[in-house]
Amino acid sequence: MGEITNFRGEVVTAQPEGAPDLAASELIQVVGERVRKARELKGLPRRVVSELSGVSPRYLAQLEAGEGNISIGLLKRVALALDHRIEWLVGDEDPWTSEVLRVADLYRTAPAETRARVMEVLSPESPASLRARRICLIGLRGAGKSSLGAMAGQKLHIPFVELNSEIEDHSGMPVNEIVALYGQEGYRLLEARAVDRVIATHDTMILAVAGGIVAEPETYKALLSHFHTIWLKASPDEHMARVRAQGDTRPMAGNPEAMEHLKSLLRSREALYERAQAKLDTSGKPLQASLEELLALIRDREFLKAS
Fold first, then answer.
1. pLDDT digit string (tens) for 246-276?
2. In the chain, what are the domains?
């Protein structure tokens, strides 16, 4: 027989194949004890927990006695009825004495600013190392993200990726079909997953993202943490003119107040775009001039310097 470590971190003798699973039995016993203690501390009769969870009183009694081999689904319902998370019942840490779980609870309920400060203290990596050699271009449509990103990537010999193209390649359908099928919420979920994928697969790159991504707090936080972000900005007139020059008439079609809407959108997102590490105004400039300024900005800020 060999030795293994149980869920408490204790070294125990491994059981031969076909023998009773002592680790599972031990876990069932611990879960039962925790369910019983949580119920008693809250002063809840077993009948009430049964009504709240949909698990029979008899089954709950077996569970608390360490005899019930409860499914994950039913255990989650019991946990919710007791106003606990399921990890409290099955985790290695004792939920009533663990500082780890206490800190986790405080973190979950803390404001975003507090959570950000906690992560800064706890994270062993510096912001520069987290961002690696990744650059992300943000801004409204027509700012030049796609054109300048592709040209800069070619000049610097690093990959250029458009996030919407990554989403389309992975989902197998155009973005407009994704929105039509799954709505804006579904698209934003795929967008967040796409950001995670490019972070995991690229240490060096230029990424261009859709203008509205900055309104998604968690996704934008991931961009700010893992990319050197540059806000490409332009005047409302130039934004509109460039989009129309690309053959996209949607901004003006049937909407005489489109320009006013665009100005309002810029105003509402300005504070979010300002969170970028750098900004480049492309208004009134030829594409080549903006490219040279972008390359100079990347060089001067050492965004591609190995951390």
1. 655 554 444 557 777 777 878 888 899 999 9
2. 3-109 (1.10.260.40), 127-300 (3.40.50.300)
